Amino acid sequence: MKLSMVLKCAAIVLMAGALPYEARAYDVYEKSIVELQDALAAGEVTSRQIVEGYLARIAAYDQAGPKLNSIVTLNPKALEEAEALDKERGRKKLRGPLHGIPVLVKDNYETLGMPTSAGSLAFATYQSANDSFAVKRLRAAGAIILGKTTMHELANGITNIASYTGLTRNPYDPARSPGGSSGGTGAAVGASLAAAGMGSDTCGSIRIPSAFQNLMGLRGTQGLSSRDGIFPLSSTQDIGGPLARSVTDLAIMLDATVGYDANDPITAESKGRIPKSYRDGLTPDGLKGARIGVVRFLYGNTGEDRDYGNVVDAALAKMKEQGAEVIEVTIPGLEELLQDSAVITLEFRKDMDAFLAKRPNALVQSWAEIYDKGLVHEQLLSRRAMYEKSDDEALRRAFTKRKALREVVVAQLAEKKLDALAYPTFTRLPNQLTSIAANGGSTCQLSATTGLPAMAVAVGFGAEGTPVGMELLGAPFAEATLLKLSYGWEQFAKPRKAPYSTPALTGRTAPASQTVQIDLPAQGTPGAQVTFTYDAFTGVLRFDATSKAPQEVLSVTVQRGTGGKAGGVVARLLAPGQQSGAGEIALRVGEWRDLAAENLYVHLYTRGAPLGAGRAPIKVPVVLVQD
Question: Do the beta carbons of residue 286 and residue 279 sit within 8 Å?
């Protein structure tokens, strides 16, 4: 189902069934897989109602509200599949913890019944004859594939822009990128548009969106998960994996999707290395006695890297309080070994051509044809020359470095008896949407080129209010250890905070705008009057300000503050002598939290009282997100 049909689909959903929607409504906002499954088991809700709840949120927030643009296609049979799974439940036939749970998959996973575009116009109508391995496993586990998510085109970047789907927004700051290339999955899961989702990671494409959306995301050991049916970028670096709002949900998704696949020989390495259940290995005291090595080199070395690095260090300090031992680690030759060890530019062309050669129904049959026909975003067109080169010697040197880097990292983990290495998943703010080229800050390469597992762990928020992730990297097939550490942190710190731009629905719609009028006297003068209107799902504070004595006014401002102390100016509403003014303030995450806490004030400055004639808090009702 094309995304243009989302609203129509939601309307059909509301008309379906004998009972009115309000009587059947179920709030899926921030619900975990475990909570959803418990509600299903108790008979409080059906899988169909859960699907309806997510469809309502998609209608409210993906192409409306903050316009996340995280969903490419909806499954036209989602409600039908939900009803079938409800009937199975009624017959006491349960497939496991994902039975009847809606999830999303990145649009480079081949999926029956839905096109797989990989973000490119070249594949907008491409329909696979088979499910990818991971999708097949999810269906077998009882999951409902609710739809497909946007991605950076052909998985070839981290700002989530594509010729077919355009730009995707970050629900924590809709003016910024959600990261990529699994940015659609990250934005959608972060905004509670599904219970969890699948992404793919070639160099950070699961971990970066997880960090940017306050999620947990795992890039497994190379060989843990099958690549069968996933559009390739680099065959020796590609791997699929889940993104989720909690460690438990992540473990449930892993349990359903990892394992040996005869169609992907590399998964033979996982035989005997995967526990019966990742979820069963989670313990609240997972940090007790753990040894974590801090790789300071990967913190970045510029001023803009400092903020996120400080958040990571604060989290590590709290981990020490929970019984972990944290030590500084220097990996010999790390900088030199990382340099030129990535092989995306050397493998992309041949891997894509080999993939298309097995898919005669695709409308393009080669990498070159995609570019020749201009069926990609211009950002990728500009990279064409990089991918046209064939350099076997460069590939050989890269593989030599990768082998050496893996050996030295594994040796450090063993010699120092470390459970994991720690560093920021990304060292700086996500890109502004106006800057589509990546702005640096990724630390993805260490895991991608060694093939070692790495988990992006939500640890807090930076000065601008954007989420920060810490990466934990472990030994081969040490995913259970990384999950255990992350779960111990999660149970203690409760790091998950939902984004302000996609709050809980009121019935089936987004919260209505809220308006408040504030009158500011000015020591005997008429002063100023300001009307504020707040749109909860866009984070925009609109204002209409007037003064009956403009000749007396120096300025009317919005400022941070507390009951007794004024803070810095956030916006100016009236200039000197100005009688009226109107506009809007796009609140950043931190400013939204100040508004919710009534720590944003409107101030009046006059010629008679140039240091302040009056101030009042902006008491606009704000729907608080779940902490």
Answer: no
Closest CA to 520 of 505, 533, 530: 530
* CB burial of residue 446 (10 Å; 0-12, 13-18, 19+): buried
Coil, helix or strand for 331?
coil
CA–CA dist 185, 109 (Å, integer): 12
- Rounded Cα gap, residues 258 and 332, in angstroms: 33
pTM of the model: 0.91
* Measured distance CA(400)–CA(229) in Å, rounded: 29
DSSP 490-532: HHHH------TTS---BTTBPPPPEEEEEEEEETTEEEEEEEE
Burial annotation 50-75 (CB, 10 A radius, 16+ → b, else e): bbbbbbbbbbbbbbbbbbbbbbbbbb
Cα 35–40–46 angle (5° rounding)? 125
Active site residue 205: yes
Domain 3-493 part of CATH 3.30.420.270: no
Nearest-10 crossing angle of helices 33-41, 47-61: 140
Token pair of 476 as six digits: 């081969």
**Rounded to whole angstroms, how far apart are CA atoms 379 and 614?**
51
Catalytic residue, chosen from 163, 192, 205, 210, is 205
- CA pair distance 231, 115, nearest whole angstrom: 13
Annotation says 200 is catalytic: no
- pLDDT surpasses 90 at 558: yes
Residue reference for tokens 């990768």: 402
Distant-in-sequence, close-in-space partners of 440: CB < 8 Å, separation ≥ 6 = 428
- The alpha-carbon radius of gyration of the chain (Å, integer) is 25
- What's CA 507's distance to the chain center, in Å? 25
Measure the CA–CA gap between 422 and 480, rounded to whole angstroms. 16
CA distance 603 to 583: 17
pLDDT band at 14 (very low <50, low <70, confident <90, very high): very low
The tally of CA atoms less than 13 A away on the side-chain side of residue 84 is: 10
Q: What is the mean pLDDT of residues 567-573?
A: 93
Residue among 332, 334, 316, 335 nearest 324 (CA): 316
Locate 191 and state its tokens.
């905004």
106 catalytically annotated: yes
Catalytic residue among 31, 106, 136, 497: 106
Cβ burial, residue 87 (10 Å; 0-12/13-18/19+): exposed
pLDDT in tens, 185-213: 999 999 999 999 999 999 999 999 999 99
Annotated catalytic residue, options 181, 192, 270, 547: 181
**How many residues would you count in the chain?**
627
CB contact at 8 A, 472 and 455:
yes
